[in-house]
Amino acid sequence: MRTPLFSLILTACLFACNRKNSIVAVEREPDFKKAESFLYHKNDSAFYYFNKVVSNSKDSLQIAMAYNGMAVILSDAGDYFGAQENLLISLSYLDEQKEKDRYCISSDYNELGGTSLNLKNYDAAIDYYDRALKFAEDDGFKLMFLNNKAVVYQKTRDFAKAIAIYDSILGKGKKDEKAYAMVLSNRARTRWLQDSGYRATPELLEALQIRVNQKDYWGQNASYAHLSDYYANSHPDSALMYADKMYAITRYLNSPDDEIEALQKLILLSPPQNIRQYYKRYQYLSDSVQTARNTAKNQFALIRYDAEKNKVENLKLQKENADKKVQILQQRLMIYGAAAAMILGVFLVVIWSRKRRQQMASRIRDHKLKTSQKVHDVVANGLYRIMTEIEHQPIEKESLLDKIEDMYERSRDISYEQPEITSTDFQAEIALLLKAFNTDTTRVVTAGNDKGLWEKVDTNIQKEVKHILQELMVNMKKHSGASYVSIRFKQSGNKVEIQYTDNGAGLPPSYSFGNGLTNTGNRIKNINGEITFTNVNKGLKIQVSFPIVNMK
After folding, report:
1. Most distant CA pair in the chain, distance
2. CATH of domain 159-295
3. By C-alpha distance, which of 84, 76, 77, 477 is closest to 298?
């Protein structure tokens, strides 16, 4: 069930970013006002105008507010990771020392608490709600944040802490009857969960009566849910009555999530002859809700993609001139010249290795494998990475020459057994590698790329992991047509797990691995790792795991 007043709290916290006080008055921009007008009844339009604010506004607070709004919409669509990403970006535009930013900061942290709660990351949820309270300057919002924090303790069955919070805010809520009813009902439910013999009826009914008098339909929905659960074992007929009332009001509110919960209660409590109709509705609604959310997620992603694409194209049109064309032509000539030189070098290395094959068959096989991997990593993937950066990112001439010179020097050393130097900051090296493939047509999102994780990993394994990731990204860029790529890193016991996911074309049934992915398989084998490829509904999922220390 949606937390009582959940959508109202989110809206209030979002609009709190604009609240006028004695020091600062924030005038919302036209696009932001349009986004507000669509919020909660036409979220795709709201998301579109919030994204326009992000793309066009020069006001950091307006941008932060827009990211907060997009996060609310994504969370409502079930995209909690996407919501968290937008909230963290919102915080990056805010200054804790500026009083005018504090409402947005507290709202961002409250939203992060809500997404963490939905992801069952309860410790993080508590921490975020505490941060929200730190920056909250309005008593009403403080009460809401404390109520949310108590809900987390209730979920973790730490009833004593939850009740202590409810007791501390119950009296304060009397100034606002809706807030008082919310806290009263939540506290009664928590005390009953702590002690099944607790008589919660008077408090639950008092909260319900306040909500009826106030015409608080969302609050009535919560009260009916609490009363149905409370009477489920002792008075099933009463529980059924309240479940039926909950079902009626959820349909009035047009809240599919709450209607699904009401149907679950009706299926458990109703006579056998009525269960079938409720189950058919439950099944239909569950499927349609999931489909609607998936459609919404894709729509929001397309809105972001189209906006970014148009922005880039406009910038290109403004900057194009004769000098730029000459510069691009010069860069291409240098790239093609360097490529021809490196290909010639590779050809000579291959010829040299073939002449010695009869005398050193065993060594040549091993050397050929290593040479092939180096050629692919240094020349093919290295060149492709530079071309990708030139195509999608501004790059200085001197920086380009440095990169080409580095590739040239490394290509000269391909045939020698020289150890590859691993950066002391491997986390930054991986971030830089993946950033090269984050273009105006492909969005690359990472999570878990922490310095602490890589400090535990053997340097030889780090080298192999870098080449594995580079090959996966080059393969994605060449073949998948993906517009979104997610790469998540995490430690599981004595292993590191990397999950790659994209929304591209996936692998066809008859697909056979080329040199690149074959080399990738060999590298995985060399570090005692495992790799699996799985086609998902839209795209490809690759799971890579390997031990932190090579046991060979």
Report:
1. 95
2. 1.25.40.10
3. 77
Written as one letter, the residue type at 329 is L
Calculate the alpha carbon distances from 166 to 82, 116, 152, 223 in Å: 31, 21, 12, 16
List C-alpha distances in Å: 172 to 14, 139, 187, 375, 534.
23, 9, 14, 70, 54
Phi, psi angles (nearest 5°) of residue 497: -115, 135
List pLDDT tens digits, range 64-86: 999 999 999 888 888 889 899 99
Same fold, 1-156 and 424-552: no
Q: Alpha-carbon distance 386 to 492, whole Å? A: 34
Q: How far, CA to CA in Å, does 106 sit from each of 33, 153, 162, 266, 290?
A: 21, 20, 21, 38, 30
Report the DSSP beta bridge partners of residue 542.
500, 533
Query: What token pair was written down for 249?
Result: 């009001």
For the ranges 171-175, 362-366, 389-393, 536-540, which has the lowest average pLDDT? 362-366
Domain boundaries in the chain? 1-156, 159-295, 325-418, 424-552
CATH 1.10.10.10 is right for the domain spanning 1-156: no
- Banded pLDDT at 132 (limits 50, 70, 90): very high
Tell how far CA 87 is from the center of its chain: 10
Look at the domain 424-552 and name its fold: Heat Shock Protein 90 (3.30.565)
Q: Is 246 helix (H, G, I), strand (E, B) or coil?
A: helix
Determine the pLDDT at residue 8: 40
Q: Is 120 left (phi over 0), alpha (psi -120 to 50) or beta?
A: left
pTM (whole model) above 0.70:
no
